[in-house]
């Protein structure tokens, strides 16, 4: 169990004046079996004329706001207090053989099983390709328990792919990531999702934060943390289990979940429509601060 204070600052600076804008933010940590969100406070400058919270289709808490005063910059600061829990130890070898999952969830009458079906379908960033299936079958051999194979893929991506923020952009296709074996957490998560969905295994995209530690003897720099992404794999009876291919592990108490969806398009931290502005500069600062319990 661990307590965290998370501060997420986003600032857009515009070349020209923005007349007004409408925005949607996925920055409110979820309350789930993994964590409890006790408090979230949002500050927007300039002050919105209209703002509200609601649940989206996937169950995420979404903050909607409109700024109608002309402005040259937009700043959104979200401060949250979260308590995460240690993951329950489960025997991965007891999870269902991967070949059986598709038929089990289609024959089931349980809500959890039926709701997982949509996480098999293609989505905005994830299309079906034979090469993804071939990659998946390196790990998902006949009769292997789904969570065992998923962890093997997670470890493989971590060990053989290079983390390189300059290698990709938000629109880099998954096949390029697979061929060049370079990218960031979003890329590795999309690749893993595409591979598992190619085998008809429900897999969803998870966004959030990860506590990072400075090098030995160095002080942690303010704003040095970042948003993070990983995947969640579904198995009947067991439910969802989260894997981080960027770090080669099942998530632990230092992970904080903000939103889940089919891919990045469903859970982008901040997106919207603006009128005017021209070119812009974006600055993001994240602090994940562990607090005494």
From TrEMBL:
It comes from Leptospira soteropolitanensis. It holds the Pfam family Bact_transglu_N. This is Transglutaminase family protein. SUPFAM superfamilies: Cysteine proteinases. Residues 177-247 form the Transglutaminase-like domain.
